[in-house]
């Protein structure tokens, strides 16, 4: 805006437009960022205060209305929360109005979310309050205390305790209140320790009260001003309750609450982390409730992030040290705590619940970034999560972790990629998964990882896939798994290549280079398949004819032939042009489910592939398949080559004037064709198990 543009903006109309937009947390954040950018311009700086006033007015009306709009209230709360973070002084005059929202203490999900948001906003504004009416302050303290003691929501109670501690720290009149309430919960729990160890069952009401007190007491340790000496008796109390509640099945609610509250103790008292390792490690291994397990993993991650912020505050991003090499005692406690918990944390990445998997891989990403885990240990646990279909977040975080490792420690990724694929195979075989392809592109979900491997390692992966398809040690579903990976392998990374019209000129060179690599890899793969077919297919066909039941070896060979046909005929046409084929979803039905073909049909397909191999594929000097029809599978061309004039030869076949070349003696003599053109020679009989493709 040039000059003063504020007079041209209708604040009420702008607020109406903003608050009626349907936003979730991510789009709301983008909208808020845009508005703050807009209000930071010199011409519109004066609009932020009236805009905030109007938002508060709308929020108040909506909360009092019987037909309030949840989306509109959500939009207002998102904006006010950002205002409280960036410019909390703008909300000082609105504290009295906002405090009225704390009167509604109902426990329905929507109201709990609103109350948590109000408490968070209020907690950010309190440090900037100078004059606050005494009677209103008393009412606020009473309302917050009521939420702590009466509302059953643990997350709301945690927000209320945090807000209460901020209030009491700012207003010295109530400085001792948090410790007083914490002592009440502590005294109640001490009186129940003996009941927990008694053989007689406790009422559900008493168990619920014990659980509530455990969570609240832990929150006071986290947000209050307790020092190590005042926290030690609380730590010992939790250890007693955890030990006694873990023995009984009916005490599982108390055990879960005690673990949840126990984790809160360590945020301000890192000295208790090492003594707590046995209890936390046992909890990670024994807890069956996915929600509680996710909470514990989330608390560990939050502890790491908080400690990283403390250790690196005021340090440039590139100079920030990892927690593993910090010299202060707090970071040493955290690092030692994590090292002892690594095995159960890694096991959580294989949990059946997708929410637990998501939390575990997010925690794993923090550990890799902070240097608290050797990256090579994370690779086998991240690769299987690329197959996750229930939680897209797992795939995204796993991909980022693996790409981060490939940039910083490429040798570590290469050394463990095979172990990761084997773990993924076990997940695929043991589950009801039918596909290993990306929904968006129809390509292999492992492509982001394959694309960062070096050329030599990619060929090792291709060889690994071919060998596993025909391996007798694996199940038939494993053959389908590796067959699908091979069929949709991102040869040369062509499918992953993206560029815009502006980058077209510079990207053509990259595209041509990737296409060349793709052709080389495809040629190499087809040569591997041809080798397997030529050395094993005849024996498999013979044994399948003699066997009464269906041959599993024939089934594996059938899958390999299907892959070969797909790579020859269809796969390259989609990889050849990333603009046209990248967004198409391509499927190979025969590999997605177990084929229903009979033994005779599979025998016919394999025989046909052997016959076609004689006419179509030759083997060049580099042991690679060359497609004589000029398909992209090799470097063959449809143009006829000019025949050179024959040169005089020595008796041993070398050119005249040249020293005779020493050739390796083959153990088995074969009779080449008399034709001058290069042709493939195969065994005369299908029963010859030693048949192979040989260049004439």
Describe the structure.
- With 696 residues, the protein is mostly helical.
- The protein has 27 helices and 4 strands.
- Strands 1-2 form a two-stranded antiparallel sheet. Strands 3-4 form a two-stranded antiparallel ribbon.
- The termini are far apart.
- The protein is globular and about 95 Å long.
- Helix 23 (504-546) packs across helix 27.
Short summary:
The protein has helices at residues 11-19, 25-40, 48-64, 70-86, 95-99, 109-125, 134-150, 154-170, 177-197, 204-223, 228-245, 252-264, 277-286, 290-312, 329-348, 354-370, 375-382, 392-408, 410-430, 447-450, 455-469, 476-487, 504-546, 552-575, 578-581, 589-592, 599-616; strands at 617-619, 625-627, 680-681, 694-695. It is mainly α and 696 residues long.
Strand order of the largest sheet: 1-2
The strand count comes to 4
Shape annotation? globular
Report the helical percentage: 55-70%
Average predicted confidence as pLDDT: 76
Give the N-terminus to C-terminus distance in angstroms: 78 Å
Main pleated sheet: 2 strands, antiparallel
Class based on secondary structure composition and strand pairing: mainly alpha
Rg of Cα set = 34 Å
Separate helix tally:
27
Q: Which regions have little confidence, pLDDT < 50, spanning 5+ residues?
A: 314-321, 498-504, 574-587, 614-696
What percent of residues are in strands?
under 5%
